[in-house]
Write a structure and sequence with these properties.
With 490 residues, this protein is α+β, with helices and mostly antiparallel strands. Helix content is 37%, strand content 18%. The chain contains 17 helices and 22 strands. The strands form seven sheets. It has a six-stranded mixed beta sheet with strand order 12-11-15-16-18-17, covered by helices on one side.
């Protein structure tokens, strides 16, 4: 490191990867700093500098003593041992400073001589005591996997044995009953049971109601009318629960009803397709479900905005993985057991091909790895709709009745506005009743979404955000539209 580079580093202050210390009097204190860097992203320890950035400097005797202490700490007071690199730098003012660079560890978790694991917490460090965080450190080093963890208080009765039997027969071309093993032995041999109870992979793939045992491992799906997430204004919202296959199917259905559909050919009778190839979401959703961090108690977020779709998974990329490697199909399995079985259940190709396949089908995909927030996000940009080439879910225009269909849609728009004007705040069922519809049809759902997007109506705040009785009311814009529009025919 050059003197100029060091002065710039000091001027920028401390952060998660840069720590200043005036001196070290005890080897245990130095070992704790090394452990914290090794358990994280690595970092640089600058000795001879105060916390506020003022340079005190070191004598040659100090440098000799600290180098000996560093060697002792790295080899004898850190387990497993690490290999930091020290450099002595004399800055322009003449002070001598010792710079210690610690690479991110490959054998996490690292501990000090007392068996304590330390991690960085902003510019400081803290002692890790939470079981979940220690598990994650072991996971990063490949010593433990969340998908193999037994789910407490579960038995074989918590599994859908019919679902498991169908999977086993399809994969191995024979029924479980034909195998000369008990069901418990069979599940253990497949890696789906440990310590007498099903593990996380078994519950996620074959559980009767996984959300009861694992409530955090679901998908939270929300469609917003604009380009920002909003607590009060949304078009559609649903908690997607069930097995991983059920969550995947529900997520695809959510996307199909909240994205535009584009005609695949010039004829009005041509089948419609999603504005973005379905393959893109198939790959990204499966990637999120299979490779997320199951030591993190949080759902996957599927957000649909007017200009993009975001899929956010708990857990940043595993150690030694980066976004560039992902795009070239180089990946590291965080949940190898789950991935092995999911290959035969979900539309999962494995071998790191998901991201490259999605990128090949749709170029406008941004991948964002955020170690600080411990999450990974895929952002899929939506195309601008082509006039006359977009149809909403539930509307099927016929070639000889295009103008008539558009007229009916406009008429229904106004009828919805009139119903809201007369009844105040109404839910979809009340609107359908006022219009004489037998149920809340796909056509009405599409019109409500259209009016929300246009700003003609807005949602009221429900007592429960996920309630299906979400009410709607006219906005000032909607009132103006209604005041200037001719009355629709019945």
């Amino acid at each position: 490191m050059t003197p100029l580079a060091l002065q710039t580093l000091i001027a920028n202050g401390e952060d998660t990867r840069h720590q200043f210390k005036r001196d070290f009097a005890h080897v245990d204190s130095l070992a704790a700093e090394l452990v914290a860097f090794a358990n994280g992203l690595g970092g640089t320890l600058v000795i001879g500098v105060e916390d506020d950035g003022s340079v005190r400097g070191l004598s040659l005797q100090d440098v000799g003593r600290l180098n000996q202490m560093l060697s002792n700490a790295a080899s004898q007071h850190v387990t497993p041992a690490i290999n930091p690199v020290s450099t002595n730098v004399r800055i322009e003012q003449g002070q001598l400073v010792m710079v210690v660079q610690v690479p991110p560890g490959l054998n996490k978790p690292y501990m000090d001589l007392q068996g304590r694991a330390w991690v960085k917490n902003g510019a400081d460090k803290r002692h890790v005591t939470a079981r979940e965080e220690i598990q994650r450190l072991f996971q990063q080093s490949g010593l433990v996997h969340a998908d193999e963890t037994p789910v407490a208080h579960t038995t074989v009765d918590d599994l859908d044995l019919t679902l498991f039997a169908d999977y086993f027969t399809r994969r191995y071309q024979r029924s479980p009953s034909s195998v000369s093993q008990s069901l418990t032995e069979l599940l253990q041999n497949l890696g789906l049971m440990r310590e007498g109870c099903p593990n996380l992979a078994a519950i996620l793939l074959f559980g009767k109601a996984p959300e009861h045992r694992l409530p955090a491992f679901t998908i939270k799906a929300v469609a917003f009318p604009g380009t920002i997430a909003h607590d009060l204004s949304y078009v559609d919202s649903e908690n997607l629960e069930g097995t991983l296959l059920e969550q995947y199917k529900k997520a695809m259905a959510f996307l199909r009803r909240n994205l535009h559909h584009v005609q695949s050919g010039p004829s009005f009778n041509s089948p419609s397709q999603l504005e973005i190839p379905a393959l893109v979401f198939e790959e990204l959703l499966v990637n999120a479900l299979v490779h997320r961090d199951y030591f993190t108690q949080a759902p996957i977020h599927l957000f649909v905005f007017s200009d993009r779709v975001e899929i956010t998974s708990p857990g940043c990329l595993p150690d030694r993985s980066n976004i560039h490697q992902l795009r070239y199909g180089v990946s590291r399995l965080r949940n190898p057991l789950l991935a092995g079985h999911a290959f035969h259940i979900l539309p999962y190709q494995g071998l790191g091909t998901g991201i490259p396949r999605a990128a090949q089908a749709w170029e406008n995909i941004a991948l964002q790895d955020n170690p600080v927030a411990n999450q990974f996000k895929a952002v899929v940009q939506r195309p601008l709709p082509l006039p006359g080439n977009v149809e909403k879910e539930g509307s099927k225009a016929e070639s000889k009745a295009e103008s008539k269909a558009e007229s009916k849609a406009e008429s229904l728009d106004l009828r919805v506005l009139i119903a809201l004007q007369k009844g105040g705040a109404l839910n979809k069922a009340h609107i359908a009743e006022a219009l004489g519809l037998r149920n809340v049809s796909g056509q009405l759902n599409a019109q409500v979404r259209t009016l929300l997007n246009r700003g003609h109506i807005e949602m009221t705040l429900p007592e429960k955000p996920n309630s299906r009785l979400q009410q709607y009311r006219l906005t000032q814009v909607g009132m103006q539209v209604l005041a200037t529009a001719p009355k629709p025919s019945a």
